[in-house]
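Tutorial sheet, problem 5. The two components below are modelled jointly, 284 residues in total.
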Amino acid sequence: MTSISPLNNVHDLGSFGNFEGKNSNEIITIKELKNFKIFQVVKYKTSKTNIKEYKIFDLNFPDDLKVSGNNDTRILWIGPNNWFLFSSSEKLSEETRKNLPNNEFAITDLSHSKAIIELSGKNLKEVLKKGCPINFNELNKNQSINSIFNGIAITLDFVNDQPATVRVMSLRSFGESLYHSVTDASLEFGYKAI
Amino acid sequence: MLYIKCPYCGYRSQNEFAYGGDATIKRPELNKEVTDKEWDNFVYLRKSPRGKHLELWHHVSGCRQWIKVLRDTNTHEIFNTYKSEDKVET
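Model answer (structure tokens):
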């Protein structure tokens, strides 16, 4: 069976908008991330366990609004006692089963239910400001927030500062609308879809 | 635009929240005999105060937690916000 990516119909490669005469650092780069494993981990209300005792691929579960990560895997705080595990490793399922007891945590596989866009470029925050009511000047590397972009519920993961890189996640069914909103906001600066 | 301080996420735009009604309403105790009148009051009867009002809000596009907001219905000033389990004197 072939899996079709959520943005397969809209993610056309090439350069668009006001990109002419600009070097690659000045325009926005837009990439669809696919074939990632995404698990939601929720600690049960009745659980007395301390989350600091648990690790996934040697990564701690982060505090409020933070992210812990390495090259393959990122753990995002998305609410009290609630995290996203986000990994390119095929062993994530095995690792969570091994390290997180099922009487303390509810684990849900959301791998096929998210559309993910990775944006980078120095005008990235200006693009996001057009649709999202967050003060982006206060956000830095390894922070995550849930918010809205033109009315679509999104999760933002600030992967890097230099170059500024952010992953924007929405529900799969909102993916195409989100992609149109983000690319529309990027036209002013010019963008390259890769 | 109103800004509401979520106890978990900090100041966020009102667009991320959904209003959830009066936070002072108490459900009748479980396993206790309840008259039709008491049940009717619990389900339907609401005050509509002009001034300070303790409200429930849901951070639906954020951390997805229910919170309590002490708000002036006349001026929209928000005095304080609380976690849903916090006891608040009004």
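Marking note: The interface with chain B takes residues 64-65, 78-80, 82, 133-135, 145-148, 151, 153 of chain A (CB under 8 Å). Full credit if you identified this.
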